[in-house]
Design brief:
Elements (H helix, E strand, L loop, with lengths): L2 E5 L6 H9 L4 E4 H8 L5 H10 L12 H9 L2 H25 L5 E4 L14 E6 L2 H12 L3 H10 L3 H7 L2 E4 L7 H18 L9
Parallel strand pairs: 1-3, 1-4, 2-3, 4-5
Length: 207
């Protein structure tokens, strides 16, 4: 399976972009959705979080209190390390399972920490959804109803814009209006169909 890694910082619009690829029938494996699934009520990971932090880590309905946990781990690097060691192996296992099951002409692996977590090793090509830090901050504050300080803290632990640009094979610029995205996605989708097709031998097996 030919894998396109899609990444970008918080508020960059990765989901909007991958939804456009999905309209062409491309399967999208979303690391954020998998991360939520591994923390579902009754899961071993959520049980471990509850045991470590107590009931304040949970909402009244038993789901993870994501806002509280985000503030907790971003204020204490050792807690962030503990949480990553708990969740990252589970997320990676699910990613691999879903990539193996994908059946579209190519498959997208969407992850905000694609570079930081070395998930680029699973990808044949990397697409960056790029925006300026000011736009990231503005969109995230409006979407998540959080403070600029909290957004800045998240941005500081993610790869920098320059680091992402250095790794990216392709770039979608998303500082502008939504209408600017569709032509960029269409052009890249056609490119990826060609690349994925060339990566296969006539018998359908990877080179």
């Amino acid at each position: 399976m030919w894998v396109l890694g899609v990444t970008g910082g918080i508020g960059s619009g990765k989901t909007t972009v991958t939804n456009l690829f999905a309209e062409y029938g491309i399967e999208v494996i979303d690391a954020d959705l998998i991360a939520r699934a591994v923390m579902a009520p009754g899961s071993a990971a959520l049980t471990a979080v509850n045991e470590r932090y107590g009931p304040q880590a949970l909402l009244a309905d038993g789901n993870l209190n994501r806002g509280w946990l985000r503030e907790r781990v971003f204020s204490d690097p050792s807690e962030k390390t503990w949480l990553n060691q708990l969740t990252h192996p589970l997320i990676r296992q699910k990613l691999l399972e879903q990539l193996e099951q994908a059946r579209s002409p190519y498959v997208i692996l969407s992850a905000p920490l694609l570079i930081e977590n070395k998930l680029t090793a699973l990808c044949d090509r990397v697409l960056l959804v790029d925006v300026s830090p000011a736009v990231q901050r503005e969109r995230t504050v409006a979407r998540d109803q959080v403070s600029s300080a909290q957004v800045d803290a998240i941005m500081q632990v993610q790869a920098s814009r320059q680091e992402r640009l250095a790794v990216a094979d392709d770039i979608i610029h998303n500082d502008g209006p939504l209408a600017d995205l569709s032509p960029q996605v269409q052009h890249l989708h056609e490119l990826y169909l060609t690349l994925a097709s060339k990566a296969l031998q006539p018998d359908g097996k990877p080179l």
